[in-house]
Amino acid sequence: MELYLGAVAIFTIAIVTVAITIWFLWKRRMWCFKHMKNNDMFDAYLIYDSKDGKTSKWVLEEFVKTFEKHFKWKLNVNLRDTRFKNVHDFAKTHMTIVIVTQMMLGPAGEYNLKIFQQALEYSRMHPNYSIIPIVLDTDEIKMTAYPKWHHLGEIMTMFGYMKGSDEDIWNRLNVILKTKQKLLCDISNV
């Protein structure tokens, strides 16, 4: 009888310990998410052709307004023209959104594509400094006044992104942000 009671007590203690651990980890995760939201963890860099800086700045402003409306997160906005040589130069914060415009137009478009590829590679290699590359096409935005990812055949072939409606695109970005955020919170809890 005593052996039975002892086994029950040990089992009960184990269950309670596991429950408390799970609760603690969940609370810590929730705190991490809240902390990230409240401390402006997102930086947005716009890579643009310096000859068309005004248009590109307007593109970024439209994106930021829509982003903040969708996600309720503030963006620290930074403008960078094509004199930037390397994506590593601006990967300084935990969450960085890299936006390039006029993706395939002439030499500037080729440079932007290079930056975009660097951003993707950096994001894969450094998960604790996550870069989220986004491509916006200025002509589409001028026509619709709504930011879109620009999907040309070459980009789709290289990166496998899907075409979709505006809402599909923002939903996809939402999944990416939540995945990155979860990863960062996992890293911070190690």
Give a short synopsis of this structure:
The chain is an alpha/beta fold and 190 residues long. 59% of the residues lie in helices and 14% in strands. It has a 4-stranded parallel β-sheet, sandwiched between helices.
Features:
190 residues; alpha/beta; Rossmann fold; 2 domains; 14% strand
Description:
The chain has 2 domains: 1-39; 40-180, Rossmann fold (3-Layer(aba) Sandwich). Residues 138-165 have low confidence and may be disordered. Helix 3 (106-125) links the parallel strand 3 (95-101) and strand 4. It contains 6 helices and 4 strands, in the order H-E-H-E-E-H-E-H-H-H. Strands 2-1-3-4 form a 4-stranded parallel sheet, with helices on both faces. The protein has helices spanning 2-38, 53-71, 106-125, 138-144, 153-159, 166-188; strands at residues 42-48, 76-81, 95-101, 130-136. It is α/β, with parallel strands linked by helices and 190 residues long. The longest helix has 37 residues, at 2-38. The protein is elongated, with a radius of gyration of 22 Å. The two termini are 42 Å apart.
- What is the residue-mean pLDDT, rounded to a whole number? 56
Low-pLDDT residue intervals, each spanning 5 or more residues: 138-165
Gap from first CA to last CA = 42 Å
User: Biggest sheet, strands in spatial order?
Assistant: 2-1-3-4
CATH topology of the largest domain: Rossmann fold
Biggest sheet record: 4 strands, parallel
**Sheet/helix structural class:** alpha/beta
Task: Look at the structure and give the CATH class of the largest domain.
Answer: Alpha Beta
**Per CATH, which architecture of the largest domain?**
3-Layer(aba) Sandwich
What share of residues are in beta strands? 5-15%
User: Percent of residues in helical segments?
Assistant: 55-70%
- DSSP strand tally: 4
Overall geometric form: elongated
| Series of secondary-structure elements, N-terminal to C-terminal | HEHEEHEHHH
Helix segment count? Answer: 6
Q: In angstroms, what is the radius of gyration?
A: 22 Å
Estimate nothing, just give the exact number of structural domains. 2
